[in-house]
Amino acid sequence: MHKVLIITYYWPPAGGPGVQRWLKFVKYLRDYDIEPIVYIPENPNYPIIDESLVDEVPAGVKIYKKPIYEPYGFARIFSKKKTKKISAGIINSKNQSVVEKVMLWIRGNLFIPDARKFWIKPSVDFLVDVIEKENIRTVITTGPPHSLHLIGLELKKRTKIRWITDFRDPWTSIGYHKKLKLTKASQTKHKQLEKLVLNEADKIIVTSKTTKQEFSQITQKPITVITNGYDTTLGNSVALDVDFTISHIGSLLTGRNPISLWKALSELIQEYPDFKKCFKLQLAGVISSDVLESIYFYGLQSFTKLLGYVSHDDALHYQRKSQVLLLIEIDSEETQGIIPGKVFEYMASKRPILGVGPSNWEVGDLIAESNTGKTYTYAQLGELKTTLLQWFQEYKKEELVLPLAEVEQYHRRELTAKLSKFLAWE
Predict the structure, then answer these.
(1) For residue 265, how many other CB atoms are within 10 A of its CB?
(2) Residue 378 and residue 384 in contact, taking contact as beta carbons nearer than 8 Å
(3) pLDDT tens digits, 113-142
(4) Which of 96, 138, 145, 256 can pair with 114 through a Cys bridge, CB separation 3.0 to 4.6 Å?
């Protein structure tokens, strides 16, 4: 059986979508004659914890750990709440305090490529022996944090392993890079490291066609797209909400703020008494203050239910109960290739998806091809309102269904089959 070492920062009990990609690959790799061995930090600083995911780790999988030093622990002395938000990727560009500005500058310019950089050297020293001991031929690094790719880079120099990089998100083109107050020198350093990793790796995995196109301008190495996916049974196994519930499952960070949607909902409430009577906006996860301010500005506060963070199991439950599922991305060119991991679980729930994002958003093609909903830009107020009203009328007739949804190709087992073929060497 071919052994593969997977180097990842996020692993149960970490919560959120980042942990699930490789947790699910590990779950199915043995079905394709590949034995996964996992390397993770011993004392990580996870912004979200979901203990329910611990039970999903396959029995018998060998896991190696090494302590990690993270400067976020030191930064908490100054502001525990703000440090946790920055660690989780919540960067509010409005009304930043002096402490926030200083922390962002330090994060962006002193910790390149990221604050987990201090794990690189001890990990390399440790894993050289593990690779020899376990007779490992292939190493996979997954980021962010992209510092983990530098572990793979050094291991390739010191051993005879074949190295594959997995980019769950882009590196230098991701939206929050612009908010890190990077100096010109820091921007150049990130670009240099990105180019080095892409050209030294043997193969590259990305989660979107947009990222593949971007990376193809930097390297000639083989690149394949393996999206995220779902690992549940299809269909709706729970009773739907009695209310016309529109739910967003997952964090709504700064910038994911479609004013046109809030306005459309506000107008529907004012124009249709039956809509006002039945409508409920349900938000699960961390919601940034600017998004909440906009929702409340349009008079939606009394219709809004904040669930806070929910476990993965509960998230699946809410998805299947909701009448409509809301998917929102920041309106920018940089986010056109961002495909949120939850979109595939949304698809599997077989509830209509209403997507709001940038022009030429890759998610729009996925949703259209799978017959699982509709997507609009931030400017399409009229179209948004028309679709919502149509779905509401179907809801009243108990006819709001997706009989033609085609999503089986995104099951985690199918995606792992694709990964196993990419891992093969002639």
Answers:
(1) 23
(2) no
(3) 998 999 999 999 999 999 999 999 999 999
(4) 145
